[in-house]
Write a sequence for this structure.
């Protein structure tokens, strides 16, 4: 293993020097990173700085000719949408916190024209209704030109502003939905009060106010009296792609066939009529719905969005079924002003497969000309692939990737419908999936940095971030270290990982301070020592926590003690790589002592299992999974133990989330060839018509139909079944060790920063393997099969290992 050697003094200097990386884009004036901006934060006169409000900002300027570049920098609190000459060109800021408040940079020259130009921004503060992931100080908007020419748009300048009288919030009713939802309000838009045309030239804004100037824009680390410490955006703009609209499935109570292919459009509702229409997008999407209406003055259209429909007992049925089922969900409402071709859309995106329109017309008929979803998500590209002779793996791959896409935006989301929160436990799995399938590490980097920004004085991260309500799950701080280990093993950007060395130590020290001297295991932990959602560890309304194993709060939890030991081993790897061998050795010794103590107090020799606590009255998949991953159980005994863990239903069962670790343990124990046979819960979801992967396998009672932690099979198909893994830090060499199980052939590939790694292999019933492997330039590796190895060089090479153990390989580059 290659080491990076440096002294501790140099390490801390290096950490201090690391700054957020700019994504490729317009060249930014360095003065705007190193000194206060000329522009100020502005707000609307008389408007509350903290309560709900939607605000329109507008400025006009003249151009004799269109410049080659015209670069501006924009931010707002809570958020903004930006328009140039009536065209929507961007939105933001990407969510973060006040100490790392993001601004976006745009070159708007392509949208400008000779003569009068208009730049407009729709800014909102959702106030008490805002999403939990939205941190806020006060309502504000700021725009700064990159140079003297673009500085004509600096706020306040000649900007005008107006508080919308057309918008009001539709609060989501968790009691009606029967579950927890924290994504912000719906929009009620009164077209009669909306200032149509305000985004384009020709609109008369003479009656609008001049904005009030507040604090000047201040980059992070510059000067004093800073409110929002501004940093440049370090992830790309979100994808915005119009989709074919939904089809009509039900009119009032008349059910239409599910085979309709034509998008719903040009539907007229007569005057003085109430009508209910159910529309089906065909698959789950995250999108801005764009509704175009004509006529129907004072008509009301209420839109209800849902992932699935419900029966009378509140159970979800087959996702294609509509007969006898009803919709529950968050809502928007539009009041038509009676004019032609009025486009209404939402401030934030919606998540849905089904949309119900409840329409009440007045004295005029209303025509719904179209309902177009504009798909949005982080712009991950699907660069990996996996093919095999088992055809049901293809829809699993498609559903898993769709789930991953919908659960990634400016943050990694646990789920796009209910929470849109970035939890460390979920994010670790999501980041591995997206590294393997897309090769894009920018959102992973942002997530690691976000969690770093959340660290409390006592040393722990928050469990989710950004988040205005604070939540602490100590075990998730350990998974943050695991994420850094994952990044270091898959990317050769060593400086990025190095900046977190000090805080890795702080997290580990927090746990070390809680080791019980009497047993050598962890003592009781404060906050919420969550491990997994299982029926055996239910939610406790009094304590307001759930998913906590025995010993989590009281002390002596085998599960949490071994997770700490596993993380210490990962930290030892990290510090060894950076040449800090003393710390590495200390962490290894601590891990060994914790493992030894846990086995001494919790191993039940009669059952051949590790108990959850020294009381030995409860046994789980979780404790025994970690016993394998930490090598607490000897290597020779691990396969037998994992066979029992995966068969014994008397053990507390892991959720789809923790199944990632169960599967990792089975593979670690040498049972990788069983992975394909362990996918039944995922196939069951697809059999029930889901287009994404749900939070739990019980498709009738799952809250979320789209939960990224359930997409781990995408990672495993590439890393385990195809067997593509980094051979060490930086992924500078590769190990390819396929575990095809019952598969007869595999074709797979994944992106790497050197190029593409791919394979095309056939597996004989006699245990042989034949085919080709392609390794990108600059990379070497090994191919492993049945305890035999073949060296791999850059280029295409043939692999052939027969059942007698003879082997040969030749290059054909």
């Amino acid at each position: 293993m290659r080491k990076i050697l440096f002294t501790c003094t140099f390490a801390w200097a290096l950490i201090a020097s690391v700054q957020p990386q700019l994504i490729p884009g317009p060249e930014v004036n360095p003065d705007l990173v190193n000194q206060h901006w000329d522009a100020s934060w502005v707000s609307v006169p008389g408007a509350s700085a903290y309560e709900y409000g939607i605000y329109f900002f507008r400025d006009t300027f003249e151009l004799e000719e269109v410049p080659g570049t015209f670069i501006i920098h924009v931010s707002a609190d809570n958020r903004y949408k930006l328009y140039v000459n009536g065209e929507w060109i961007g939105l933001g800021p990407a969510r973060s916190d006040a100490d790392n408040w993001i601004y976006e940079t745009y070159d708007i020259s392509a949208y400008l024209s000779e003569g009068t130009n208009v730049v407009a921004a729709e800014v909102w503060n959702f106030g008490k209704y805002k999403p939990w992931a939205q941190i806020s100080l006060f309502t504000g908007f700021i725009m700064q030109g990159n140079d003297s020419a673009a500085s004509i748009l600096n706020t306040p300048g000649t900007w005008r502003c107006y508080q919308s009288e057309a918008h009001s919030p539709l609060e989501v009713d968790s009691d009606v939905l029967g579950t927890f939802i924290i994504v912000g309000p719906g929009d009620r838009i009164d077209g009669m009060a909306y200032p149509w045309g305000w985004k384009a030239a020709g609109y008369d804004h003479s009656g609008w106010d001049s904005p009030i100037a507040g604090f000047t824009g201040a980059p992070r680390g510059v000067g004093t009296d800073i409110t929002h410490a501004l940093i440049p955006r370090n992830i790309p703009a979100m994808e915005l792609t119009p989709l074919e609209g939904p089809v009509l499935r039900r009119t009032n109570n008349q059910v239409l066939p599910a085979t309709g292919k034509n998008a719903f459009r040009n539907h007229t509702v007569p005057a003085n009529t109430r009508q209910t229409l159910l529309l089906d997008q065909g698959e789950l999407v995250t999108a801005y719905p764009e509704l175009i209406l004509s006529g129907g003055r004072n008509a009301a259209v209420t839109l209800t969005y849902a992932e699935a429909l419900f029966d009378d007992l509140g159970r979800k049925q087959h996702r294609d079924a509509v007969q006898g089922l009803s919709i529950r969900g968050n809502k928007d409402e539009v009041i038509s002003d009676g004019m032609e071709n009025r486009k209404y859309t939402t401030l934030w995106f919606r998540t849905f497969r089904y949309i119900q329109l409840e329409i009440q017309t007045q004295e005029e008929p209303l025509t719904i000309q179209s309902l177009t979803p504009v798909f949005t998500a982080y712009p991950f590209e699907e660069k990996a692939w996996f093919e095999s002779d088992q055809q049901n793996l293809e829809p699993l791959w498609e559903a898993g990737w769709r789930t991953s896409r919908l659960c990634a935006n400016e943050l990694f989301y646990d789920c796009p419908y209910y929470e849109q929160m970035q939890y460390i436990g979920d994010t670790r799995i999501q980041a591995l999936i997206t590294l393997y399938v897309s090769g894009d590490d920018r959102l992973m980097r942002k997530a690691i940095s976000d969690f770093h920004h959340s660290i409390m004085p006592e040393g722990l991260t928050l469990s989710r971030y950004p988040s205005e309500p604070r939540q602490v799950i100590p075990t998730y701080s350990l998974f943050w270290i695991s994420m850094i280990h994952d990044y270091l093993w898959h990317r050769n950007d060593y400086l990025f990982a190095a900046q977190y060395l000090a805080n890795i130590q702080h997290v580990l020290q927090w746990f070390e301070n809680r080791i019980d001297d009497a047993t050598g295991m962890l003592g009781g932990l404060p906050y919420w020592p969550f491990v997994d959602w299982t029926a055996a560890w239910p939610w406790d309304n009094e304590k307001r926590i759930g998913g906590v194993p025995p010993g989590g709060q009281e002390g002596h939890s085998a599960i949490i003690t071994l997770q700490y030991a596993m993380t210490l081993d990962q930290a030892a790897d990290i510090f060894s790589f950076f040449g800090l061998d003393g710390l590495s050795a200390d962490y290894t010794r601590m891990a060994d002592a914790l493992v030894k103590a846990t086995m001494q107090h919790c191993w039940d020799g009669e059952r051949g299992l590790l108990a959850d606590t020294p009381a030995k009255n409860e046994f789980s998949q979780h404790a025994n999974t970690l016993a394998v991953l930490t090598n607490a159980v000897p290597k020779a005994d691990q396969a037998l133990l994992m066979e029992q863990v995966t068969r014994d239903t008397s053990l507390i069962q892991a959720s789809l989330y923790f199944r990632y670790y169960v599967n990792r343990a089975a593979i670690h124990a040498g049972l990788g060839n069983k992975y394909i046979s362990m996918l039944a819960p995922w196939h069951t979801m697809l059999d029930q018509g889901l287009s994404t992967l749900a939070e739990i396998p019980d498709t009738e009672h799952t809250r979320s139909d789209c939960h990224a932690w359930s997409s781990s099979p995408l990672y495993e198909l590439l890393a385990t079944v195809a067997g593509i893994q980094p051979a060490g830090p930086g992924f500078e060499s590769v190990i390819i060790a396929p575990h095809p199980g019952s598969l007869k052939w595999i074709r797979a590939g994944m992106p790497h920063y050197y190029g593409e790694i791919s394979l095309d292999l056939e597996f004989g019933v006699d245990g042989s393997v034949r085919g080709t492997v392609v390794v990108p330039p600059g990379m070497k590796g090994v191919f492993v099969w049945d305890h035999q190895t073949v060296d791999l060089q850059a280029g295409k090479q043939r692999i052939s290992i027969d059942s007698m153990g003879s082997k040969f390989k030749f290059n054909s580059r």
